[in-house]
Amino acid sequence: MFPIARPSSPATEVSLPSLSDIEAAACVVNQTVPPTAQYRWGQLEQLLGVETWLKHENHGPVGAFKLRGGLTYFDALARQGRLPPAVVCATRGNHGQSVAWAARAHGVPCHIVVPRDNSREKNAAMRALGAHVIEHGRDFQEAREHAQQLAQSLPAHTVPSYHVELVTGVSTYWLELLRAAPQLTHLYVPIGLGSGACAAIAAKLALQHPARVIGVTSARASTYARSLAAGQVVAAEVSTQLADGLAVREADPAALRVLQAHLHDLVEVDDDAVANAMRALFQATHNVAEGAGAAALAGALQQASSLRHAHAVVGLALTGGNVDADVFARVLQAA
């Protein structure tokens, strides 16, 4: 078990969406994103040695799970009569595509700040959705700080990377998976800024499902590992070259409180483990996974022995397939 400092009081928790909230969000999300498939792939089950279900969030229209959250967030703004004249966000790519898609659907101009070394192909995808992409800073944290300054100067509404409405939208795919495979005992989910893991927790709590939620972080982006151990936000430098969706320098305080209270365990994976999982997913399913998109499998492979001992039934999501072609080629050639 990874050390997690549990909250001393329920008062330290933050609100999570209810079952009715998630089902209402599904009605919004499914207008754009039909329920994605989940399959048992034989070669993945051979690798892990247990029944394994893979949820294909890479099959959505932006190639990643994040769009669900953007759709729900903008729908809430529209219902409340609060659509802004413009929006700004910071991203490594998938959150930005989500915001760009939803902003375009609502006719709202969109400005997105990315780090200078961001994925060229993710940048191109955001521009193709009509976003004004600004490259600034050496990492996500510096991009986020610049986005906040830009929002004040324009002015524009800042779409955060973590928010209860984003969590509500993302929870819809976990609801789909838990209802499709109610026998699941272990859910592995990558942690970037936390919406995905908190969404898994929200869905299992809403369904009163007993599955354990195991977070997967990059060993080269350890803010959540350190923060969960300390019981407070601890910043950490980022050096991962492959799992850019996990490359966060500073944990979100609200997400941290949810994870402290409800995350069963945490696994740290290095870039070699992520690359191995990317190759395994391609070989077993012929689906392309970006680094963060393969992290759940990397975490499960790291705990395969204990999963077999527990006769576990594992749920994973291929959370995104937006990897630059040259990066993916290097990963495959390194096999």
TrEMBL record:
Matching Pfam families: PALP
GO molecular function: L-serine ammonia-lyase activity; pyridoxal phosphate binding; threonine deaminase activity
One GO term (biological process): isoleucine biosynthetic process
Keywords linked to the UniProt accession: Lyase, Pyridoxal phosphate
InterPro entries in the cross-refs: Ser/Thr_Dehydratase, Ser/Thr_deHydtase_PyrdxlP-BS, TrpB-like_PALP, TrpB-like_PALP_sf
Named cofactor requirement(s): pyridoxal 5'-phosphate
Keyword Lipid biosynthesis among UniProt keywords: no
Residue ranges occupied by any Tryptophan synthase beta chain-like PALP domain in the UniProt entry: 31-314
UniProt xrefs under PROSITE patterns: DEHYDRATASE_SER_THR
NCBIfam families: PRK06110.1
Protein name, as recorded: Tryptophan synthase beta chain-like PALP domain-containing protein
Source organism per UniProt: Comamonas serinivorans
Taxonomic lineage from the root: Bacteria, Pseudomonadati, Pseudomonadota, Betaproteobacteria, Burkholderiales
